[in-house]
Amino acid sequence: MPLALPDALPDGYYLDNFHYLLDFVASHYAHLLSRDERNFYDRIKTLPVNAVRLYVRLTNRKGPCFRVDKIRYDEIVDIHGALASLVEVELVQNAVPALEEAVKLCSRNELISLAAFKDWPRGTSKTALTEHILELELDNPVVELQIGVIELLGLNELRVFRLLFFGNFHQDMTEFVMHELVMPFENYPLTAEATSFRSRAAVEQVLHLKDLSEEAHELLQVDETGVDILSLARSLPARPDDLAAARRFDRLVNQLARQLERIGLERESLTLYESTLAPPSRERRSRLLNKLGQYQEALNLCEAIARQPLNQEELEFARYFAVKVGRKSGLDHGLTAAFKASIPTETIAVQPGLNRVEQAAAQYYEQHSEGQADQCFYVENLLFNGLFGLVFWDIIFAAVPGAFYHPFQRGPADLYTGDFLVSRRSRIEDRLAEVGEASLLKNRALNVFNQKEGIANEFVHWGFWNEEILSLALERIAPRHYQVVFSRMVKDLGSNTSGFPDLILFGDEGYRLIEVKGPGDRLQKNQHRWFQYLLEHDLPVSLANVVWTAD
User: Fold this and answer.
1) What is the pLDDT of residues 285-294, one digit of tens each?
2) Which of 160, 228, 231, 419 could be joined to 223 by an S-S link, Cβ 3.0–4.6 Å?
């Protein structure tokens, strides 16, 4: 969902933020910048204010080509002067875009006025006009119409600055606006040693893998034979040593291998999966080995997973699948079946309405509960994640080396890796013990809520929380139950922060977690894993199947 920005923003906010980002990178990462990138920074710094304003505005629009007559900003009084300054330092150039881009820049009325369409009906759609121009490769319309077009330059250099600052490609300049007006970020120390990249080679690896990922995204939509996917797979570099680059490599490999598997190229897929250990590669390999009749190899891999699982999902899969393969093949293995409890299930009849099925179910439980003061809330992943974020706040934002390297992080860089637990194990274990004491748990959660309300935290969705639901959660849920839930979460925050039941029903005697499924819906894998875990530890949880009633 795009960020909803406030109507009123301070004058010059985007210009100050842009300079802050460039200056931060130039001072913290000078040793990683190329000659072109340093030159880009120097050119920006020589520009007059209006030219920088225009450059920043254009970088936030879809380009890189723009019609000069469509460039208008109230705060830039001399657009042509600003453009001249940008041209002078080679951050903008006059351009004749490629035919397809040129057509996009023209309106329907402009296209129908071209000589090639003098006999066409005036109401012809732009789609039809575009198809005709591209099919016949007619003359470039911006040339015939004498439309001035400029092309924005320096985008590759700017991409590197953004990558070095944020450490990823999904954050952008809106983070500054969030910090200033929407949601402030935690004030954690930034040290010179804490950087997103250790070497220029690591930067280049991430940039290259980003390009490959974009190419793969296109191929996965259109390649039904696997020929182009295999070609791309063969062009992949070796798995990088840098952790950030390695994670990108693993995601890309798993995407390509999974598509080859879907197409039916099992052996090619199996070979590709072997180039990474990142989940779910070992699970997919086990399934493929079983499908190919290599039962002993499948069992050996399941046993290897069980000895050193990378997450809870892998471990549970290995136990389940080894039993399945063993029964099918008659081969022995050393794994026992995972705990599997019968899920308490009920069917409820709910009137269809404008609300989501979960909200309709929450209303049903409040109306049909035995206690007069029972309250039911639609919480899904927000409740336990939020309490975890509050109770472990100081540990999440602890000054661990390398965890924080720019001021707009909702959590440490290693949050969703195994290093998060390893680097903070003693503190996490002490906190889990503290959670078992009701008074300590309550005091910590309430104090952090009051002190940190509104500050960005990966786990806390502030729009959900208020004093009422926080008090109910702390009073009605036993501390031992929080220990049970948090203990599983910290083992694998990437996998175990989703799949929680939809509803929580608070009553005089405690609470109940309820997963709601509408007609035709069923439990997903991560939901089923949470059910089995909660039932194994005697937490009150049930499944509600909804049927619609006309009454």
Assistant:
1) 999 999 999 9
2) 228
